[in-house]
Amino acid sequence: VEASIPEPQREAWRRNKTQGFTDAEGFEKEMVRHVETTLARSVYNCDENAAYSATSLAFRDRLILEWNKTQQSQTLKDPKRVYYLSLEFLMGRALDNAMLNIGQKDSAKTGLSDLGFRIEDIIGQEHDAALGNGGLGRLAACFLDSLASLNYPAWGYGLRYRYGIFKQEIIDGYQVEVPDYWLDFNPWEFPRHDVVVDIQFYGHVRKDTAGDKAVSIWEGGEIVQATAYDVPIPGYDTPTTNNLRLWSSKASGGEFDFQKFNNGDYESSVADQQRAETISAVLYPNDNLERGKELRLKQQYFWVAASLYDIVRRFKKSKRDWKEFPQQVAIQLNDTHPTLAIVELQRILIDIEGLSWDFAWDIVTSTFGYTNHTVLPEALEKWSVGLIQHLLPRHLQIIYDINLFFLQTVEKQFPNDRDILRRVSIIEESQPKMVRMAFLAIVGSHKVNGVAELHSDLIKTTIFRDFVEIYGPDKFTNVTNGITPRRWLHQANPRLSELIASKCGGKNYLKDLNELSKLEEFVNDKEFRKEWAEIKYANKVRLAKHIKNTTGVTVNPSSLFDVQVKRIHEYKRQQLNIFGVIHRYLSLKALSPAERKQQLPRVSIFGGKAAPGYWMAKQIIHLINAVGKVVNNDPEIGDLLKVIFIEDYNVSKAEIICPASDISEHISTAGTEASGTSNMKFVLNGGLIIGTCDGANIEITREIGENNIFLFGNLAEDVEDLRHAHTYGSHTIDSNLEKVFSAIEKGTFGPSEDFNALMAAVRHHGDFYLVSDDFNSYIETHKLVDESYRNQDEWLAKCITSVARMGFFSSDRCINEYADEIWNIEPLVEQE
Ligand code: GL7
């Protein structure tokens, strides 16, 4: 029974309706009330952390009022909704974003100042919500911002990890991982203890008949309970406030099994509890790598089953016919991690709702869309048949049936081709047999998309080629990634945002990023350029302070700031960067003091985490730190070169780093980085980039013009031949790179054994990432960067022109494309 207040008593509710604050005075009242009641503190013991807590609670109250209205309006109108299923949502901080999106930052600033605090200090108290590894998780967060800002009826579904991505400490130049326990105090979530779902694992399948129908009953095994935690997602300058629902696991039956407890088995009932809680305990810290761990598969099914139960329950409330399901529901699979949702929906429809296979399968395939985020083979998910059989016996049967029907249609289409059946089978006939999740995702979806043009072309011609033959090219499409200009410009770079607003007719450009094009008029405006340069300098000063506070190293803000921040990965080639830095160091050392005076000072800034089990990535971090230690203390070098490793790179640090870069590095081996998204963040903040012809760099070049970007290196189409030549031909290493290696071998940066593996990968193991092939072009291009930077007028013109042409890279454009071409959903504008 729905608990609802009878009409005669509703008047009392209307009279007492909660009003959200709309000015500084209103904010102050709420803030003080939370300090004095919710937090049980007072004017005598309110530190910055308490002030942060109370401020957040005041804003959370505002958000939840809008959230309620949005949800009510969606329930009433019952439009088609999109559900974004992602194992990662890398949200970062919420307070500043909430203030800006609902347009109350000034109220908070004045209010906090009246009460004795500086708003920046309060914002700085917040712990990042770091439920993601890198680009894939941050993309999901940008998408949520755009979905709400564009008024789409949308929900995110994810896992509420107790531990997000680990905190990185650098000790003696090495990465050390520390757990990130972030839930101590999290004002941004609402536990929904009434929204719980029982999730089944293990057990067996019994065949039975119901009337004349054969039915499968999945029984036995164990039950784990999923509890919903809701995070409100405010849109920018709109009342729409969407929901991110994160599931948390605990043992079924509440606190612990009372049966066992009453039987005197207290310990084992607590152990059960802990085992169940393990499912949502920790985010797997791998980026672009899958390791096939049973607990990871448990996480996937737990999250997918709870989300689908919720989605189906919501659909059933409307009492519509099942055939309308795809007209009401679109589900997007963020990579293959939620692919079991395809199987789970088919199971619900045939085993529980009693639909026929074909009718059900039609619904399933019309509902799902699948986004592929990588072509790296080590990242493509496969699960052993045995593991799925053990954990999800009914699902394995359904996977086999899906595969059977699929292969039958392929066989009809290609009657004389046995090999294609082997190639496209969802089951890989290896030892042990494996389920290829990407293939299952393609077969179960109506659209498959890549995340940048080159990437979408590559998946069609390489890993998914056969499927293009089978389904035709229309099933495959491209949606180039984007970023939200609210967080990545307005919030991260408030002064630049102001300056742009003053030239673009106000802040509307934050809602329609193409309006940035108005800046082109001012490229040659002296006054404007001067202000632009001052803002960049101030942002560099801010970063220099952070570097000083965290590393003790002083960097000169007038130097060229050269930044590479992202997960550490051989394919992203931080090793190429640090070898280039060593080359620069050696070149500077070879100059006379007089010649040195002519050189342009540079700061090479690195940041990023290595997966704890990725040994090579950890060696790269060690080399960067070892080089920094020598170079930063070399009196001959002084300000001419500094090498900085920023510890624990995360979203809130990115917000300080992106606005402060002059040039940033996006230098993956061509064809390996599906898109990249930090490239967009840096350019949007008035930095230039040095990069390879890879991922979204290519489209950035197309938009901003090739004179405004420093491209280098081999092209994707040549990579295979080069690799082949390394292995089967003679492989000579670039002579400048050899000089770098000799310096390392001489012990210039400490015992060289530490770095042997990095050099051996190039010299003796086929140089898979083409470090040597691209080295010369890389250092020559860096010389062009230096030259170009010397002419500040031209440099500024490049930066401003680039920003003016970045409109395409808004995640709003990207979400509109998904909405039109994949989800078929419309915005829902709320009425009062
Ligand atoms: C990634 C890609 O590596 C990255 O290039 C892309 O920008 C991002 C979002 O589409 O997705 N794929 C992937 O597996 N991870 C990524 O960041 C972890």
Describe this structure in words.
With 832 residues, this protein is of the alpha/beta class. It folds into three domains: 20-77 and 94-127, no CATH class; 78-93 and 128-478, Glycogen Phosphorylase B (Rossmann fold, 3-Layer(aba) Sandwich), CATH 3.40.50; 538-817, Rossmann fold. A nine-stranded mixed beta sheet has the order 7-10-11-4-1-12-13-17-18. Strands 21-20-19-22-23-24 form a six-stranded parallel beta sheet, with helices on both faces. Helix 4 packs across helix 20 (485-491), helix 12 (340-352) runs antiparallel to helix 13 and helix 23 (574-589) crosses helix 32 (771-790). Residues 133-136, 139, 287-288, 373-374, 379, 451, 481, 673-677, 695 line the site of ligand GL7.
Question: Which structural traits does this protein have?
Answer:
832 residues, alpha/beta, Rossmann fold, 3 domains, nine-stranded mixed sheet, six-stranded parallel sheet, globular, binds ligand GL7
Main pleated-sheet profile: 9 strands, mixed
Through-space gap between termini = 27 Å
Question: Could you tell me the strand content as a percent range?
Answer: 15-25%
Small ligands present:
ligand GL7
Strand order of the largest sheet: 7-10-11-4-1-12-13-17-18
Sheet/helix structural class: alpha/beta
What's the tally of helices? 34
User: Mean pLDDT, nearest integer?
Assistant: 97
CATH arch. level architecture of the largest domain: 3-Layer(aba) Sandwich
CATH topology of the largest domain: Rossmann fold
Low-confidence segments: none
Radius of gyration from the CA trace? 28 Å
Approximate shape: globular
Helix content: 40-55%
For the secondary structure, the number of strands is 24
Q: State the name of the first-level CATH class of the largest domain.
A: Alpha Beta
Number of domains: 3
Q: What kind of assembly state do the chains in view correspond to?
A: single chain
CATH homologous superfamily annotation of the largest domain: Glycogen Phosphorylase B
